[in-house]
Amino acid sequence: MNQRSTKIVQLLSREKDEITVAGFAEYFDVSQKTIRNDLKEINHILKSNKRQLLDISSGGGMISIPEDFRESLSLLLEENFNNYRLSKEERKKVAAALIVNSADYITLASIADRLQVSRATVINDLKDIKLFIKEKGLTVVSHANKGLRIEGIESKRRKFLYDLLKPTVQDYENSKNVVSWHVNVQAGDQSVIQKILSEQECRYKRSLSDSSFREIVLFLRILINRNQIGEFLENQIEKNSDNYLFALDILKVIAQYCDVTITENDIYYFCAFLDDIRYVNNEAFNKNAMIIQMITREYITNISTELGINLNEDYDFFENLSNHLESIFSAPPMDYPEVDIVNEVLEDNQDVLEVVINQLPTIYKFQHRKLTDIEIKYIAVHVCAAIERKKNKEVPFRVILVCHAGIGTSILLLEKLKRHFKFRVVDVISAGLAMNIKEDSADFVISTVPLENCSLEYVVVSVAFNDTDYIRVGNRIDALRNSRALRDRLEDDGISARGLIDKITPVIYDLIEPKEKANGVMRELRSVIRHYFKQSIENDADIISPSLHHLLRASDIEVDVECTDWEDAVRKSGNPLVEKGYIEQSYVEAMVGSIKKYGPYIVLAKGFAMPHAEVEEGSIRLGMHFIRLKEPVIFGIKDADPIEFVCCLSVIDHKSYLKAFFNLINMLRDDEYRQHLHEAKDSEEIARIIEQYEYNIV
Length: 698
Fold this sequence. Notes:
It contains 31 helices and 14 strands. The longest helix is centred in the middle third of the chain and has 20 residues, at 373-392. It is α/β, with parallel strands linked by helices.
């Protein structure tokens, strides 16, 4: 048995009322199936000792605790339920954390109960516990009737707790950290905090190492916990720090989404922490970023072919996987945790894992380091999530969204769901109203918290809605498909903004001439439709990442360019950007040198190549220059030669161009559009084709 099972037993022993399987799944961040398996093991021990069993309902997953369970508790623990007992050193650390984290007095009996030892054992350990705490600048005060409490400033308390957890913080779930297992010193949704930190890291162009990222998450979760129990920092010295705005914006968003009060002292204290954090050298971090993005595109194409599922059009999949691979290859191999949900997903998707492994040579062509088994598993999870997204856009389901953290959280989650599932969200309510949900009002419920007395089955997800959440929701949808006939009522679910635009677009382009007028009409229609459906025309990602037709106007396109060979083609695609002041001549030379060094990895589709260099090689502004060759040339890729289209890409970072990059590759992979580009009379017609393509995929 595992430590999670022991923790379940301990939690059940303290519950007076019923608790749900979903509640435990959310608490431990595992699937409901995993929790049910743990409960089966507990019942097996109870049954073998002729004790009453836990009753788990099949519908809502309610767990009924038998009357004699408290008597069974000692039996379960005495039988060495998880084959592990705390050592004296571990008891010392756990007891110290309990005392330091307490906002009031804590009794020896309470400590003994949490450690599952006798009061006498705690008394024997007390001298070592006090000395351990004293070494960190804190003092334990004893009171005959009240117990123990800490004297010392808040910053030292937080440092003490942080140092206890830091050695094993590489465990995402902290399940292997003996202190965090027994003492809840962290608060806040970990996935939400990780998402917030990632976004601000990108915004401020901070490149955190993996270890630094996890350390900051730990720091923030301790901060949230301490502030929520009313333990605030003493006055901090204000110091000039380059990290002030970085710290301020992280904590502002944390306050919004994690229901916590942030003080000015928190900002100064956080700044001091960030000043000591290790950052990755930006140049080293980004050195191979674009190559990895190119590899990712080829890798997705290859696994799509082998799986027989087209995943090339899933921009989120491309962005998530390229970011994942970039983080992997920017640092030494990481000790990722073995997470239950990952293994469970892959148990049911061995064919996906096999394809992921089969196509690894695509990645290894440009990366010398081999991926570890767990790194490969996480890639497979990304693929599984992409498959779920594609599959679940096909059938609309009626869902009710339940959120606990206010309207901002609801909107955030709602947009994520609309983006990836063909859901009809029939209502958005608070957790307190979940008991009023009628069985026929929706197919199922998506909630950010475990629910009580809910008549419909529900899926608990994080606000950040990561890949494991996609899979959890996808599993629920699979179950619905297998149990219900939904075809008869699909027409009742109406149509989305995207669906309406998809239907209107070809009609507009067929009826209206010239195409410039059709483009204008479509722009107006898209604005009206999105306003009607209460969807923004442009989200933050759109603003950061310009569309392809914004970067490839008629003035950025040339037709029938004469070139002698691939090198001449690369130079002629780049030289106009030099003349416009977008790149320096060194950038052109770097493009040629990179191809000579790595080979023609820039060939991304049949007949198409996209030369580029790194930011530090002489890029000034984001831009593209597209040329159609009069006579195609050979680049050296058998399946793609000869190359007719070459587009030079000038980059200023490794994110802003991604949408345009993604759309251009997909367009050139489309035989029909590639033929249109081949037959176009001039640059103006090619620009119109590009714009029409992007309107068709919106």
